[in-house]
Amino acid sequence: MKIAVCIKQVPDTNKVEVDPVTGVLKRNGVDSKMNPYDLYALETALRLKEQYGGEVRVITMGPPQAEAVIYEAFSMGVDDGYLITDRAFAGADVLATSRAISQGLKKSGEFDIIICGKQSTDGDTAQVGPEISEYLSLSSVTNVTEIISADAKSITVKRTLPLAVETVKLAFPCLISVEKDIYIPRLPSYLKKQATKDRKITLFTLGDFDDTDPMHYGLNGSPTQVQRIFPPEVNDKREMWQGESGEIVSKFAGKLKELKFI
User: Fold this and answer.
1) PANTHER family recorded for this chain (predicted)?
2) N or C: which end of the chain has fewer CB atoms below 10 A?
């Protein structure tokens, strides 16, 4: 089974500055980590490999330092890694990101299944996986909570929806997005880390793609534009009241009415 996993490097903090002009995150100088939801996708892929055989590769888009999450994936048991990196991809929204990743997946070779995490912690859109499947004309299923079975031609999964649980069988090639309840991710192996520290990562730039139109990527290819960026207001005002309980309750009720909470 040939398995591709989409992973992402995200900020390891919630104190990230935003460029007021472009509306994109300022990632330079910020500690980063692998997107937590992608760990569940990786674990799913590695378990499929262990049970059915095959190979697992990861692909990510980002600046050169995003290689760090690929090497982390190597230390968990991944066989191959691809990094999509080019200034032309900077500032991409979910549509432009999905287009770039789909192009990278096509260049990385054949695959039976693509596995994505539910969403990323820095975007929270949960749209990239389904949009990749649209670009590649693949069947896809989201909200996957269990792998039931697989064979040489298909995979059967369980997906949990708000009002139902569905069992779906997909023919290869296909794409699934998994929930964080599917498995407990394994920890990186120090021995695998040492053994793979010099493993080559394949880089893709815009010129490597079949579609090399720069207007399809980055800010140019992003129909979603941020209109306004501002920090949330911090209200740390407080009042100290003293008196009898009945008096304080009456005053508290009046304050709630004043603030239009009731």
Assistant:
1) ELECTRON TRANSFER FLAVOPROTEIN BETA-SUBUNIT, PROTEIN FIXA
2) C
**89 with 37: CB under 8 angstroms?**
no
| Phi, psi for residue 235 in degrees, rounded to 5 | -110, 100
Joined together, the tokens standing for residue 166 give: 């569905």
pLDDT tens for each residue of 215-253: 999 999 999 876 766 667 777 888 888 889 999 999 999
Other residues' Cβ atoms within 10 Å of the Cβ of residue 70: 25
CA quadruple 80, 110, 203, 88: dihedral sign: negative
Which segment of 23-27, 69-73, 192-196 scores lowest on mean pLDDT?
23-27
* pTM exceeding the 0.70 threshold for the entire prediction: yes
DSSP secondary-structure letter at 206? G
Tell me the one-letter amino acid at 184: I
**CATH of 2-216 among 3.40.50.620, 3.30.450.20, 3.40.50.2000, 3.40.50.720:** 3.40.50.620
* Angle in degrees, CA 68, 176, 42, rounded to 5: 30
